[in-house]
């Protein structure tokens, strides 16, 4: 059995800078990995099937773990069957990248288990077929992201702690993208500009998420009492930096929804993974 963690991420900001001819949006964002993990257990067997335990609510054909395994099969030199058991700690549909991270973890582990012989860049390109957030988890480093999120420049970020709130709602990314009031023309910027004044960098989805989902608005109002609340991804999770003045236990205890205290990561625990 192979047991590995699958980390979550935060978007420290998220701007839409334009729309391409194919309908996809051009983005700029910073991905920061955090120590909130799903755990994945891989049990190789002599069967040819891939069984996934712990995500029964997701249809197999739409399951990113299953799709990651299927996309690697043509490269396998030593194919075997698998039972993949997942222990979910990262909330789903939350903007924390749990599904994308699980797909990336599957690509990294099976590339070695099945002796596919692919390098990280090749794995990241396969990952992009599964979702725009998968490549950053394959690389396992914090990154400045552009394009649809696939053009990555790896960056060093100061170690931080965050409080994350998970409002009790499931946000439809399609619904947010379909809103006419969504800002799609943010001025392109740079990592240097972010470093000078991070507080001026927001998330273009935040005003829409707040207006469509009262639970998000409530969570942001709550965190704004203690710091600057931000939305990660398209939500529903919101977060703020922890500072020395905060009474963390009290903030968590009185939160209007589930709260997490997390640390940022310099790199993924799967960085340089070897079986």
UniProtKB/TrEMBL annotation:
<feature type="active site">
    <location>
        <position position="133"/>
    </location>
</feature>
<keyword id="KW-0547">Nucleotide-binding</keyword>
<dbReference type="InterPro" id="IPR006204">
    <property type="entry name" value="GHMP_kinase_N_dom"/>
</dbReference>
<comment type="pathway">
    <text>Isoprenoid biosynthesis; isopentenyl diphosphate biosynthesis via DXP pathway; isopentenyl diphosphate from 1-deoxy-D-xylulose 5-phosphate: step 3/6.</text>
</comment>
<dbReference type="GO" id="GO:0005524">
    <property type="term" value="F:ATP binding"/>
</dbReference>
<dbReference type="GO" id="GO:0019288">
    <property type="term" value="P:isopentenyl diphosphate biosynthetic process, methylerythritol 4-phosphate pathway"/>
</dbReference>
<dbReference type="Pfam" id="PF00288">
    <property type="entry name" value="GHMP_kinases_N"/>
</dbReference>
<feature type="binding site">
    <location>
        <begin position="91"/>
        <end position="101"/>
    </location>
    <ligand>
        <name>ATP</name>
    </ligand>
</feature>
<comment type="similarity">
    <text>Belongs to the GHMP kinase family. IspE subfamily.</text>
</comment>
<dbReference type="InterPro" id="IPR013750">
    <property type="entry name" value="GHMP_kinase_C_dom"/>
</dbReference>
<keyword id="KW-0418">Kinase</keyword>
<dbReference type="InterPro" id="IPR014721">
    <property type="entry name" value="Ribsml_uS5_D2-typ_fold_subgr"/>
</dbReference>
<dbReference type="Pfam" id="PF08544">
    <property type="entry name" value="GHMP_kinases_C"/>
</dbReference>
<dbReference type="InterPro" id="IPR036554">
    <property type="entry name" value="GHMP_kinase_C_sf"/>
</dbReference>
<feature type="domain" description="GHMP kinase C-terminal">
    <location>
        <begin position="205"/>
        <end position="255"/>
    </location>
</feature>
<dbReference type="InterPro" id="IPR004424">
    <property type="entry name" value="IspE"/>
</dbReference>
<dbReference type="GO" id="GO:0050515">
    <property type="term" value="F:4-(cytidine 5'-diphospho)-2-C-methyl-D-erythritol kinase activity"/>
</dbReference>
<keyword id="KW-0808">Transferase</keyword>
<comment type="function">
    <text>Catalyzes the phosphorylation of the position 2 hydroxy group of 4-diphosphocytidyl-2C-methyl-D-erythritol.</text>
</comment>
<keyword id="KW-0067">ATP-binding</keyword>
<feature type="domain" description="GHMP kinase N-terminal">
    <location>
        <begin position="63"/>
        <end position="141"/>
    </location>
</feature>
<dbReference type="InterPro" id="IPR020568">
    <property type="entry name" value="Ribosomal_Su5_D2-typ_SF"/>
</dbReference>
<protein>
    <recommendedName>
        <fullName>4-diphosphocytidyl-2-C-methyl-D-erythritol kinase</fullName>
        <ecNumber>2.7.1.148</ecNumber>
    </recommendedName>
</protein>
<keyword id="KW-0414">Isoprene biosynthesis</keyword>
<dbReference type="GO" id="GO:0016114">
    <property type="term" value="P:terpenoid biosynthetic process"/>
</dbReference>
<feature type="active site">
    <location>
        <position position="9"/>
    </location>
</feature>
